Hints:
By secondary structure, this protein is of the alpha/beta class.
Amino acid sequence: MSISIVIADDQPLIRAGIAMLLAAEPDMEVVGDVSDGTEAIQLARTRHPDVVLMDIRMPGMDGVAATRVLTEELGGNPDQLVKVLVLTTFNDDEVVYGALRAGASGFVLKHAAPKDLITAVRKVAAGEAWIDPAVAGKVIAAVAGLSDFSAGAPALVGRLTPREREVLVLMAHGMSNAEIRDRLVLSEATVKTHVARVVMKTGSRDRTQAVVLAYQSGLVVPGPGRRL
């Protein structure tokens, strides 16, 4: 089954270029492209894409506000959950952190290599986190220190069993379900169950927020060797 994608960016050339790149992939289908956040919400409501590729800076409703509406409106129904992959130049840290708080599942730089964008879409569609490797350490370290984001994090992580905490640590190290399966010698179905329980018990919207929670709680410390 193809990954359905909506592209939201106010620059027509960027939208067209991304659409051509993704449409060339056999497992991807671009179901629409729009120029602002309001249009992205309207299209997502009617087409229910798997992923919305969302620019942060757009006229009218920006990407942060649109991401918040999509995740709050559809977040309660897993069957209709729209995952948002944010496009950014990372020239405004607070805006990027705002998008993460709003429920974005990942970030990709506009000047990233085409193969990285394709990988990011697949990862986010599969329910995994993606933060561009070039800025992953900076994002995690900064978000981990935001007081409004970290309140209560240790108590939330404390709800997890030892095995669930182990899985969360590996998630925070950027491992996919398949990599966690191999590391812990478990079936992939068991890993998926553990990941789902981690997300549910911590009250996270998705895998990305659970990963951030791991850093905020002190379960994982930002440093070299981490990847998302």
